[in-house]
């Protein structure tokens, strides 16, 4: 059986880089002719984009700007007509995410194969299939590999356990913290995680996977747990192989590490913002600034893949945070608070006791304030549940992330 999903993964890096740059120029040319947002962005640049230096002179596009651009019209970012898309998804922000008609539109197949998923694996998918793309995004590549998928979605832990044990599920896709929850619940029911379960490999995304959480879950089930990095708008950006010593850059996008304020590429090894251009004929987001901080490791990997590796996600460039797989923006919280004139200031505190994300919305208001409607509106607009604390002092009106990742 092949060790890689396709041959591009192991050709010499300079050769792969040259092939990717030729594809990048085709993507830029497509955007110049078909994408209104990109046409507007480069309208004042008197350059022909033929070299890497030319490409680096293109102003980068911060992900947060997608919200404002889509307010004008979603189609301004597309290289195709809306009616030609396969699916359109909705994420809090709000953001619409298109899906084209390719069998693995988001390009995750090489990632899953590198992690150890193989034909005839029975895979339990615990990401959502409702409005957001995660479930279908990660199902497509597994089907392309030849796996059978159980579209379980999130929650219903007792049912998840029943399915996993009765169908002898071999693969898990979801957040590592949720797989830990499944394991703890199964233990409380008297099950043996190594004998009653048949898991072999698990994929984690949408949260930071710490070494301690990885080891804990791997030891619980006696499995291999690997992570991938991507976004709903771009798809797969990088992924771990069996050696788990960084995340290999995907062959289907161009990735730069840039100075966050200027968008200028940084020397190898320096920490900067991950700026990515997917090779997409549908949604060619040229130089999209993800807001995530990382750096590249160019040392050889024993797996034989030649692409550099992202050394984890090392933070954010802004005050946006990801909680339970969802981005939370300060302006979203402020919009919810606006509905309650009696709230003078607020602070959204994020912690992770027992490695599980917890939200607490602190508000400055009268002590007799009834928070029921506030909690309901927060969940409706931001798709997450929060606790509420009432304070008499002025608060920062910011998101405060106090999670610890040891």
Automatic annotation (TrEMBL):
It holds the Pfam family AMP-binding. The keyword Glycoprotein does not apply. Transmembrane segments: none annotated. Residues 141-276 form the AMP-dependent synthetase/ligase domain. Keywords: Ligase. GO terms for molecular function: ligase activity. The keyword Ligase applies. This is Phenylacetate-CoA ligase.
């Amino acid at each position: 059986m092949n060790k890689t999903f396709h041959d591009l993964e192991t050709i010499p890096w300079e050769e792969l880089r040259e092939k990717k740059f030729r594809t990048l120029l085709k993507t830029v040319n497509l955007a110049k002719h078909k994408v209104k947002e990109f046409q507007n962005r480069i309208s004042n640049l008197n350059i022909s984009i033929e070299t890497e230096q030319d490409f680096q002179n293109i102003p980068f596009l911060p992900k947060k700007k997608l919200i404002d651009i889509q307010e004008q019209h979603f189609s301004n970012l597309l290289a195709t007509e809306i009616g030609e898309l396969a699916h359109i998804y909705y994420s809090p922000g709000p953001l619409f995410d298109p899906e084209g008609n390719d069998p693995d539109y988001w390009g995750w197949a090489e990632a899953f194969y590198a992690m150890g998923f193989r034909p005839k694996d029975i895979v339990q998918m615990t990401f959502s299939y409702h409005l957001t793309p995660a479930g279908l995004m990660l199902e497509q590549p597994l089907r392309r590999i030849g796996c059978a998928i159980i579209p379980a979605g999130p929650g219903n832990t007792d049912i998840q356990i029943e399915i996993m044990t009765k169908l002898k599920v071999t693969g898990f896709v979801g957040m590592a913290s949720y797989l830990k929850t499944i394991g703890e619940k199964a233990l409380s029911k008297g099950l043996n995680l190594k004998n009653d379960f048949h898991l072999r490999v698990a994929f984690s995304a949408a949260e930071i996977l710490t070494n301690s959480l990885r080891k804990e879950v791997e030891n619980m089930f006696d499995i291999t747990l690997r992570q991938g990095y991507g976004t709903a708008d771009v798809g797969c950006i990088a992924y771990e192989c069996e050696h788990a010593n960084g995340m290999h850059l995907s062959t289907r996008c161009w990735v730069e590490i840039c100075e966050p304020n200027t968008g200028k590429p940084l020397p190898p090894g320096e920490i900067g913002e991950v700026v990515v251009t997917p090779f997409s004929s549908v949604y060619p987001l040229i130089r999209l600034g993800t807001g995530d901080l990382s750096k590249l490791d160019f040392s050889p990997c024993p797996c034989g893949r030649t692409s550099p590796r992202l050394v984890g996600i090392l933070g954010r460039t802004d005050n946006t945070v990801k909680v339970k797989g969802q981005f939370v923006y300060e302006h979203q919280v402020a919009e919810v608070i606006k509905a309650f004139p009696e709230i003078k200031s607020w602070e959204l505190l994020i912690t992770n006791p027992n490695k599980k994300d917890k939200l607490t919305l602190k508000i400055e208001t009268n002590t007799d304030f009834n928070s029921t409607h506030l909690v309901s509106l927060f969940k409706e607009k931001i798709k997450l549940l929060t606790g509420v604390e009432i304070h008499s002092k002025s608060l920062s009106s910011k998101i405060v992330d106090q999670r610890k990742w040891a």
